[in-house]
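Researcher: First entry.
Model:
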Amino acid sequence: MAEKKNTAAEEAAKKALEAAQAKKAAGKVQHTYTQVGQQSASKEELLAVTRKNALPYRIAAIILWVLAICFEIFAILLFVHKIEFGFTVENPGWTISWIVCIVLDLVCVIIGSNLWKKSNHLDPASAKSPFRFWLHNNLGVVMAILAFVPFIIVVLTDKNSNKQSKTIAVIVAVVALLIGGLTSYDYNPISQEELLENADIDTVYWTASGTVFHAYDDCSHLSNTVELLTGTSASAIENGKTRLCKTCEARAMKEGGEAVSSGAEKAEEAVEDTLVENAAEAAAEDAAA
């Protein structure tokens, strides 16, 4: 009778486990995979593709930076009253005009710098020269300085403007410079060496949006993604995915560390077994002698 009760309890537990597993499976997104170019490209071919992908962003960034400098020049000319739009010197419209130019200057700097950062993530510079690497990634910061510092210098050295106008102009330009510089700085740059290192992974997964690829299709960042693209990391890079997911990278390092640790333990056990066997053989030989 007790055995029958135990069997019934086991069956109930088994059914509960199956129900829990079914519920978990139902809640999990089933991925649809689309295979993308499995043929590996050489490093030169890969870099050629990344340069091609980045070129439109670089051109757009340069155009916007040129526009930013033009707006700065207009702001200077308006502030020192070298151009007129139907306003008198005393008319507050002069103040509004150069402030509008400074705002447009800032907008062009921010958009241009973000496009430049996007191009650098698609086609990164080499990190062999730290200064050149920093300058290449943060050219937007340099452009922010060029877009506002000359205006500040002109304002401070202008002898025809009153103190109040100069104070307002300097404050507006300094605030614009800080905003432009901070938004132009690349806080997470990627190097060409890192890009090529990431290109050695055999099979990766990515989505249509973003610039990150994943080493695991069950990565937590893909939990709500239905359609996944899959292929070599080189093909992911060719499609604009230039950075390995940090979560996948940490997981790979952890699993690699566990594998190394397990291998070391097995090696130690093998050595101990060998020593024991040798000792047993030596004891047997002594006994026989």
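Researcher: Second entry.
Model:
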Amino acid sequence: MKIVTADVVVTSPNRNFVTLRLVTDDGLVGLGDATLNGRELSVVAYLREHVVPLLIGTDAARIEDTWQFLYRSAYWRRGPVTMAAIASVDMALWDIKGKAAGMPVYQLLGGASRKGLMAYGHASGADLPELFDSIRHHQELGYRSIRVQTGVPGLTKIYGIASQSRPAEAGAERYDHEPAQRGALPAEEDWDTRSYLRHLPGVFEAVRHEFGPDLPLLHDGHHRMTPVQAARLGKALEPYDLFWLEDCTPAENQEALRVVRQHTTTPLAIGEVFNTVWDFQGLIREQLIDYVRAASTHFGGISPLRKVMDYAAQYQIRSGFHGPTDISPVGFAAQLHLGLAIHNFGIQEYMQHGERTNRVFDQGMTFVDGHLHPGDRPGLGVELDVDEAGKFPYETAYLPYNRLADGTVHDW
């Protein structure tokens, strides 16, 4: 089962995606997600110039050996570009192995550990009435767990508020989904942490009063707080029983999480910007987090993500895999198969792709009563319509960035 062709497909139906498409000599096709939001073409070059030439003629069945070869042979390791490229190869090989076996990938990972994967959606609003409407809308869509992001008085445009995202040009679908935006330059947003810390606890008090104690609520701090500020927020939110507080402070400084952990019992989720098990090693060993937020697309694929979750299981730490629309349907499917198989699954982020994206990527997954399932098609359960993908060429797009009132660039 040798790889005979390896193509890198770039398409932008509702947003930019990078997909690796491997074909074996017996006609099996494997897909892998290599999308890196705002830096997509850097991974395209890495794949086309450095990885694809190494794959032709290799044995598609040797998943672990291929992963180790791509990781170790380049000498310069880690980083989001390298790991997204390796992830696409790893996913594509698992896809091929599943198709060769006539089984969905989750069966190859040990079989299902549950009936479905609890998912959470993204509710947001510039004010409380808009936020309440968004929460109700997500409940109507079937979500049973809700991430809550809110506007802050005095700040005109901040992370996570869908209604504040730039509208699409006339006749075009908007970029799917906020906060990424098409354009030659990244959009500037504003930020004030003290205003945010004063405002947020009252928002969660109002949400709990309106929706009751049983609705699981999540919140994303998006790396914008110092350790002391994060500890203060976690403590202030304890009465509202959050499912988790995500990315409360930049986790590259792992000792910072000790300060947060010492001062709050609010569960913590970290890791969507991490790329290898080494980024999680201390956080898991010291039990400084409760949920692993890594994405298979930026973490090297299914193989290493399975390993980090096996490690996390020793410390009762669960999964909370990254799942916005900058993870393609291929990368998302990879996470669903892994989440269904592992024992220490926690929750799955799920933002729904646009109609154009769903035409390019035919998917076997289902979303019923708040739970996801990858389906039982052989492999990952996603097929790429190459002709449809060709209708939507790459368009330059960036994530926004933050400035404080005095003009200082701040963590976004």
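Model: Note on the second entry: Residues 231 and 260 are 4 Å apart (CA to CA).
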